[in-house]
Amino acid sequence: MVNTERTGSVPGRNTPNPPPRAAQPRSRSRSEVPRRLIDQTFNRNDLYALRSAVGAHVTQVADERTAEDVVLIVHELCSNAVRHGGGSGRLQVWVAGGALHCEISDSGPGFAQPGLVGQALPAPSLPGGRGLWIARKMSDLRIVSDDSGTTVTATIALR
Amino acid sequence: MVATTPVDRLAPGDHACLTYSDTEERLDILAAFITAARARGDRTVCFSEKADELRAALLDRGVDEGFAVTPVDQLWGARKAPDAETMVELLARELRAAIRDGHRGLSITADMCWASRPQANAEQLLVFESAVGGLFEGGRFTAICEYDRESFDPVTLGYAARVHPRTVAATVYHEDAVLRICRQHVPPGVRVAGELDYTRAQALTDALAEAVRLDRDIHLNLNQLAFIDAGAAAVILRTAAGLPDQRRMVVVCGEPIERTLTIAGAAEVPALRMLVRHGEH
């Protein structure tokens, strides 16, 4: 589905669940204190529960339609981590600066060209490749791949 | 557990019990039953608590006009409370009238929820279900008695299943805690309820493959589907895109599912039509 070419991961730097990068939300130059909604690890058996948790939390801060979109975006990104990112990952969801931020990190081989994946809709006859396309259409998507894994951040404006 | 019969395997003279919790499943089975009964020349009457609603729902599913829907309290005529003997007499009279009018027989569906009401003696239900048995001899009278699982206790449901020679149920392709995929009879196709993602997409692939084999146009009922992901949406698009010319797939769904199918590329597939139900649930 996506380009899973290894980008030269260094053994030892691949921690399955990287420690919380506490600076990530807090380093934002906003006076507003980020409101953390979810921070949990997941594997292939957790996707259903994860959708349920995301839906429950996000409806607290967004309308129903936005929450449905976020559930789909998070599911697609987490299932990518499960399928192509080493089988597990970590999901963090927080609100800051009038937007909802969903960060999915995994320790799998990343994308050789993260800027190019999911930019085109595959032909209807093809079985896969729509997950990142959908996430890009529905959110502001940032993908960072390096030796230690891949981190995808989806930002959705709150109305 | 009693073995169940798909509705298209019911025969004239069958006395079948339908216990349901999914209203989509109930309506599909009734629609298939009525369509088959009318095709063999039976007069068909549905006795229902919500007669107007049921008529509209059946017509909406494409059942042809010409079936009767009657408030269920007409079964006990002038009496104030449900009375088993009165009901059986009325049905016997209706059967004779149907045959006199040139019909092959009489097929009825009866919503049994009257028996769960406080004023109705639950024992009348027991009397009714055994006394009505005689009408089925000769194969001119066919009936589905509907039991809503929400309205009845397990003991009564167990009794209902035992007293009916047949239990009618949907043909299930896949069932687990989060997903149920069934055959839909009217209009013919597949019905999916719950949540569907790539981990279970193969079950949908298999169900749709059978529909492609059996049906001309494929009706995919996603009204009770709460979530679909890109992987499962791809199965739908791919199946529709692979249909031969002149054949279509018609998807009925709520707005969230429609949004996902659209963003996954539904517009690129000319054979795919979506009918969106607004403001349900």
Task: Kindly identify the CATH topology of the largest domain in chain B.
Answer: Rossmann fold
Overall domain count of chain B: 2
* Number of alpha- plus pi-helical segments of chain A: 4
SS-derived structural category of chain B: alpha/beta
Total helices of chain B: the number is 8
Tell me the structural class of chain A.
alpha+beta
- The side-by-side strand order for the widest beta sheet of chain A comes to 1-2-3-5-4
Number of strands of chain B: 13
N-to-C terminal Cα separation of chain A, in Å? 33 Å
Reconstruct the topology from this structure.
The complex is a heterodimer of chains A (159) and B (281).
Chain A: H1 23-26, E1 35-43, H2 47-58, H3 64-84, E2 88-96, E3 99-106, H4 131-138, E4 140-146, E5 149-157
Antiparallel strand pairs in A: 1-2, 2-3, 3-5, 4-5
Chain B: E1 4-5, E2 15-20, H1 23-39, E3 42-48, H2 51-60, E4 68-71, H3 84-100, E5 105-111, H4 122-131, E6 141-148, H5 154-163, E7 166-168, E8 172-175, E9 179-184, E10 189-196, H6 201-214, E11 218-228, H7 230-241, E12 249-254, H8 255-263, E13 272-277
Parallel strand pairs in B: 1-7, 2-6, 2-7, 3-4, 3-5, 5-6, 10-11, 11-12, 12-13
Antiparallel strand pairs in B: 8-9, 9-10
Helix pairs in contact in B: 3-4, 6-7
Describe the protein's architecture and organization.
Chain A is α+β, with helices and mostly antiparallel strands and 159 residues long. Chain A contains 4 helices and 5 strands; from the N terminus they run H-E-H-H-E-E-H-E-E. Chain A has a single domain (34-157), classed as Histidine kinase-like ATPase, C-terminal domain (Heat Shock Protein 90, 2-Layer Sandwich). The model of chain A is unreliable at 1-29 (pLDDT under 50). By secondary structure, chain B is of the alpha/beta class. Chain B folds into 2 domains: 4-168, P-loop containing nucleotide triphosphate hydrolases (Rossmann fold, 3-Layer(aba) Sandwich); 172-276, Transcription Regulator spoIIAA, CATH 3.30.750.24. Chain B has a 7-stranded parallel β-sheet with strand order 1-7-2-6-5-3-4, with helices on both faces. A 6-stranded mixed β-sheet of chain B has the order 8-9-10-11-12-13, with helices on both faces. In chain B, helix 3 packs parallel to helix 4 (122-131) and helix 6 packs parallel to helix 7. Chain B starts with a strand and ends with a strand. The mean pLDDT of chain B is 92. Chain A binds chain B through residues 44, 47-48, 51, 65, 68-69, 71-72, 75-76, 79, 121-128, 130-131, 133-134, 137-138, and chain B through 178, 195, 197-199, 227, 229-231, 233-235, 237-238, 240-242, 256, 259-260, 263-265, 268-269.
